[in-house]
Design brief:
With 290 residues, the chain is an all-alpha fold. The protein is built from 12 helices and 2 strands. A two-stranded antiparallel sheet has the order 1-2. The chain is globular, with a radius of gyration of 19 Å.
């Protein structure tokens, strides 16, 4: 029983790290721009298709494809911010929500026309090789997901806390008017925030695309999971998004492994946690009361 528990725990942490990567971009954009980006899931989907095209179509190495997918989705994030968000600056929040929602539908249908409805797979010859540690089996692919995810979270933490643009992002998040008066280019900070958030989501798409299948509608699932994690961790709270992602991944994995028929309704576990958080701690598990 202990070995099974540890196995499910490791599996849950692996998926949870990817949930965290998806949610980080969403909460980063909300925390700095006060924008709820409903097209975030489709940019995650774009990262998965870019990784697929670069590895399967062009034969590039998987890690190089992940790096290029990060750059490609970051560039797409810049375009989204410039076309769908910046022109609506100062408008009511729901106006921006409708704009990103429309963009989400456009991107999903565009992917359907371009790549078709058939699921795709990134078949990595080394991905399924097992590593056994103390009776726990973890594949090379899952180790890669953990390693890349932890590296990205660490790099983002350093970027936000230590870099010049990271400090500018924190200043804008604290008081955008005061930041503008101090000479910080607020519009450029907004663009960089979108690029960073969508780039990380694109890598998450490339990571999970190698574990599961890739299809145009995969962004719907991703954005729902991301909203669960963001609300659980606290809106705009990046460390909360990381911890919330891991908690959700572990809860789903343990539920699927130990509850009767758990695999049938493991996705409902996240919604159950979300309802409890909204009822008893609406500011999120790691947020502060306003």
């Amino acid at each position: 029983m202990t070995a099974v528990f540890l196995q499910q725990l490791v599996n849950g942490v692996t998926i949870g790290v990817v949930y965290a990567l998806i949610a980080i971009g969403l909460t980063l954009v909300f925390g700095i721009l006060d924008v709820i980006n409903f097209a975030h899931g489709e940019l995650y989907m774009l990262g998965a298709f870019l990784t697929y095209g670069l590895t399967v179509g062009l034969g590039l190495h998987y890690f190089l494809a992940l790096g290029l997918a990060l750059a490609g989705t970051a560039a797409a994030g810049l375009l989204v911010e410039r076309v769908a968000v910046r022109p609506l600056k100062g408008r009511h929040m729901f106006t921006v929500v409708l704009s990103t929602l429309g963009l989400s539908i456009f991107l999903q249908n565009g992917a359907l026309l371009w790549w078709g409805p058939d699921p795709r797979e990134i078949d990595l010859a080394w991905g399924g090789r097992p590593v056994v540690v103390g009776g726990i089996v973890i594949t090379y692919l899952r180790l890669t997901i953990l390693g890349v995810g932890i590296a990205l979270i660490t790099a983002l933490t350093w970027f936000i806390r230590r870099s010049r643009w990271g400090m500018a992002m924190r200043a804008v998040a604290g008081n955008r008017d005061a930041a503008a008066l101090m000479g910080i280019p607020v519009d450029r900070v907004y663009a960089i925030t979108f690029a960073v958030g969508t780039g990380i989501a694109g890598v998450a798409g490339g990571l999970l695309g190698a574990m599961f299948t890739i299809e145009p509608s995969m962004g719907e699932w991703a954005v729902v999971k991301a909203f669960c994690v963001v609300i659980m961790g606290g809106m705009g709270n990046v460390p909360g998004a990381v911890l919330g992602g891991v908690i959700l991944g572990v809860a789903e994995s343990l539920g699927a492994g130990f509850l009767p028929g758990g695999t049938s309704y493991k996705d409902g576990i996240g919604y159950a946690i979300l309802i409890l958080v909204l009822l008893y701690r609406p500011q999120g598990l790691f947020g502060r009361r306003a």
